[in-house]
Structure formats: C-alpha cells, structure tokens
C-alpha cells in the first residue's frame, strides 16, 4: 500500500509539473499569442484551499540533498504533523482505505515550514504531501495573498521570459499557501523534484518573509512584512513593526499563450516584469 501511494503521488506531482509548463520548452516570440481573460477564467488552474483546525498527521515526500550532485537522491516518505492553522492547497483528491485524501501538488508550502518538518538536507521542491480529509481540514476562500490561478510562482522577464521559457535565466518570487513570500535568485542547479524544477533549479530561497497583511486594490496585491526582502523592489512604509515593508504585485491583465497551449499572465513587481503560468499544456 505504501508503495502504491508513493507511486500515485509521484504521478500526480509529475502531472502537476507538466500541467504548469514546468519543463524545458522551446519557444519564440512568434509562438506567443494574446488570449482573453474569459479563456483564462475557463481554463485556468484553480485551487481548493483548506485550513487545518488542529495539528494534523500527514505524509510528505522528499528528496535527500546531496551537495555537489547534479540531481538529488530518490524519493523518501516521512510521517509529519502539519501545525494547526496551516493553509494548504489541494488540487487533487483520491482515496485510501475508503478515506478521502487531499494531495498537495499545487501551491507550495513555505521553506520555513518544510525546514521545520524535515530539516535542511531533505528537499521538497513541490508540495507533494497527502492528508486524510477530516473535520480538521476546513475549506476556505482563496487567501488575499494568493494569486487567482496557477502555482503562484512568478518568473522574472515578463513576456520575454515567457517566450524564451527554458532558456531564459529567470529569478523567481514564490507565494506560499501558508503565507510566505520567497525570492529565488537563478542558480545553475537542478533538483530532481522541484515545483520551480529545471527552470529555477533551486529549492532554498535566497530570501523570504512572513506575510503579515495583504490588501487587494484593483489589479494590485499589496503584501506587508516586517523586514526588507532581498532581491525584490519593495518599499519601506513604516519605521517599525510587522508592516514595515510593502511589496506591490500588479496584474497587467494581459495573458498570453504558447503554441502548446500553456498560458501565462504578466505581472509587475516594483519596476520589474514577471510572468506566472496560469493554464497547463494540452500536449
């Protein structure tokens, strides 16, 4: 049974990675076409968020970090306790011994939480976990700090980065389901299983901050946290406290699609252009 569940989760994770376009693609500007917001609304990768009302048992699948290795070691499974109050995203459900299971394969958990649960030498690039559905898992609306579609990883480069996906050396900003913003500086390293995968090639953030407040005004999502986030263009708006810095993430409402049907929305963060995958490839 354990082996079957492991295989099922790995299949789900690979489907999720492929659906989000997180494989090496060959694209050019001529392959990129504008699509309507109604297309994204119909086809966009959506989420189901849950909040844990109690400390909850879960399985999480991870790779062992081998410094200097091109790839990480084979998958292992750990029994963990997800803390009360954790927000998770479940894109897939299944069953095990007649119980409904929530599979985390969409929006990632924070590095802070994964480090606490597993330690620094155990890497979970993507949120590959399983939780038995129970009264401990309460469905909630999308948190204000979450983007409406996709895996909430924004890649630098905007439309240029999207059209050259797989060859463009892009940094990334990741928003996690449990309320962190993480910055990843591009590094030439590939992790075997990583929601940023062969593109970002890194599992440990360059910098990160706990989101203490989020405000949505029009097309802009404002995130507030207590310290400077290295690598991004944030603004200092207070002299002390938990809301000292503010990061503005502006949706340009200009979605594009590659010939293979993977689509992305263009955002700006400060004075930089980013994109994030919002639909998967149909190939």
TrEMBL record:
Source species: Lentilactobacillus otakiensis DSM 19908 = JCM 15040
Signal peptide residues on this chain, from the entry's feature table: 1-29
Name used for this protein in its record: Surface layer protein A domain-containing protein
UniProt keyword list: Signal
């Amino acid at each position: 049974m354990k082996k079957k569940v492991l295989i099922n989760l790995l299949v789900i994770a690979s489907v999720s990675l492929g659906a989000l376009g997180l494989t090496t693609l060959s694209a050019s500007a001529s392959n990129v076409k504008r699509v309507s917001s109604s297309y994204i609304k119909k086809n966009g990768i959506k989420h189901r968020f849950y909040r844990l009302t109690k400390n909850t048992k879960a399985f999480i699948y991870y790779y062992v970090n081998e410094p200097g290795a091109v790839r990480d070691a084979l998958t292992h499974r750990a029994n963990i306790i997800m803390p009360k109050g954790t927000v998770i995203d479940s894109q897939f459900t299944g069953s095990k011994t007649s119980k409904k299971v929530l599979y985390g394969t969409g929006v990632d958990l924070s590095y802070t939480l994964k480090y606490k649960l597993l330690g620094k030498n155990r890497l979970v690039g993507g949120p590959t976990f399983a939780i038995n559905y129970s009264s401990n898992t309460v469905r909630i609306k999308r948190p204000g700090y979450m983007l409406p579609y996709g895996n909430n990883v924004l890649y630098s480069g905007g439309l240029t980065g999207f059209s050259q996906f797989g060859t463009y050396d892009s940094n990334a900003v990741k928003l996690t389901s449990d309320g962190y913003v993480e910055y990843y500086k591009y590094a030439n390293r590939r992790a075997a299983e990583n929601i940023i995968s062969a593109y970002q090639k890194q599992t440990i953030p360059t910098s990160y901050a706990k989101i203490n407040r989020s405000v949505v005004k029009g097309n802009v999502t404002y995130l507030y946290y207590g310290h400077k986030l290295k690598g991004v263009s944030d603004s200092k708006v207070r002299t002390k406290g938990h809301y000292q810095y503010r990061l503005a993430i502006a949706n340009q409402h200009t979605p594009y699609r590659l010939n293979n049907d993977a689509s992305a929305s263009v955002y700006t963060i400060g004075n930089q252009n980013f994109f994030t995958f919002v639909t998967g490839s149909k190939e």
